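Posting here for the record, re: LXAUTJHC.
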Amino acid sequence: MEKTARNSAPQLHVFATVEEVLYGLADLFVALAERATAARGRFSVALSGGGSPKKLYELLASPAYRERVRWEQVYFFFGDERNVPATDPQSNFLMATQALLAPLGIAPTQVFAVHTSLPPAKAAEEYTQTITDFFGEAELRFDLVLLGLGDNSHTASLFPHTAVLHDATVGAREVFVPELDAHRITLTAPLLNLAHAVAFLVYGADKAAAVRHVLRDARDVEEFPAQLIAPSDGELHWFLDEAAAVHLTL
Ligand SMILES: O=C1O[C@H](COP(=O)(O)O)[C@@H](O)[C@H](O)[C@H]1O
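Prediction output follows.
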């Protein structure tokens, strides 16, 4: 049973169980795909990484959903990527490939990975060009950006107290994350915010404090980078289970 918040700019979709959350977001994916393909003839999606979306990707590739989307019209990008080879277990591309892209038989021409064999700054520069070339004369806006939330309130690879938080450009950037002692490549907040729709997928009690910080605390993007996400002319959805939403008053 979904409880929807009233009069809230972000649309909060809170479900009792993780399974219900996943079905809710999968249904939104189907609806947005239909809308985008009707309007623009294709559906461009920036995928999230980490652990949480794996179950969503597996659901989308399952018999319940695989016939409900015209997958040959879907184009996949990555909201962020770890600076590791595509064969590394940490790779967001590898996770998405195993859970979603390979099971659906998505053609390589529909998948735009970050080339992590390049140095991070170069990989980000090339990815910016890849995105620019994809949209060409069309509006540079993803139809859907999927995002997760770290327990430190990062999203994509917009980590607390990193310079990329203040990057006003539309594109991909490298970021050094001191707490991980590692580089990553991330789309900038201005690019993410151009999307027609953004959907966060967050579940589990360990995310409850971060959800509260991002959605209810005073604005402090240095501490809570996910507060940067506010589509300028698009929908913002948060798909949460009750454990993650426990500190919100709906
Ligand atoms: O590092 C990352 O973390 C966030 C959250 O991931 P989760 O494993 O806690 O679900 C994710 O959205 C991002 O894409 C990923 O690279």
